[in-house]
Amino acid sequence: xxxxxxxxxxxxxxxxxxxxxxxxxxxxLSVFTYYPAIQSxxxxxxxxxxxxxxxxxxxxGNYLTLARDPVFWKVLRNNAVFALGTIPxxxxxxxxxxxxxxxxxxxxxxxRVVYFHPTFIPLIAAAALWLFIFVPRYGLLDQYLSxxxxxxxxxxxxxxxxxxxxxxxxxxxxxxxxxxxFFLAGLQNISxxxxxxxxxxxxxxxxxxRYVTLPLLTPSTMFVLIxxxxxxxxxxxxxWMLTEGGPNNATNLLLYYIYVNAFKYYDVGYGAVLTVVxxxxxxxxxxxxxxxxxxKVHYEA
Length: 301
What we know:
Layout: H1 2-43, E1 46-49, E2 52-57, H2 61-67, H3 70-101, H4 108-120, H5 123-133, H6 140-149, H7 160-188, H8 192-200, H9 205-216, H10 218-232, H11 237-242, H12 254-264, H13 268-293
Antiparallel strand pairs: 1-2
């Protein structure tokens, strides 16, 4: 009897301590995540502009305006193309870099630092750097393309056909080193005994990569894919710095469109509707990603 009481007391004390330790994070999330999300849903049913500072309830009016907004659909299409173009490229590049720096060689640490270095650069500074790279005729990219392929004076940020790909190049460069860290951690958790056993069975390097590395790297791959999907809808700094959504909304992404409507045009209600759409997209894609990919995740015994 006495032992059972002591166990219950210990469990209750442990639970109380755990909740107290989680309390600061819960307060932070409540103030900066949960409350803004709920407030955005609430404001999406109101009209609040510069000339109507007092919110006026209009029901589904903002949602109907959204459905008829051609710029919104173009922004959504831009974001989809942006995500499909940057996520696979950044992940494949990150995996290749992780495989390279996971080997033992003399300058391994130096290469790791170089590959990860873009992550340290603030996004505004990185955008300013690439602004000079994309300058027609005098930019570094134009210089190389003219010498190697004879292409001259490509207006990377002024041509609607090139502006979004230019933004994607910057994004892949910025993200690949960050994703590499997670792939590298996953590679280092794979037991070398599995590779040795596969080699004894006669597996060549390609087969060892396919049947050992890739299956056991799926936990890292799933994590990187989820944060890459979420991140692809949260880019705004480089859009503001390089193109401001132009030319002709060719680089306008969803988060930047929210910023323009809510803080530049002061259309709070419409900005709230766009925020709700962004939240639904992120929840939907994350949920589908976890549901589909978790079935294929393999953990080393």
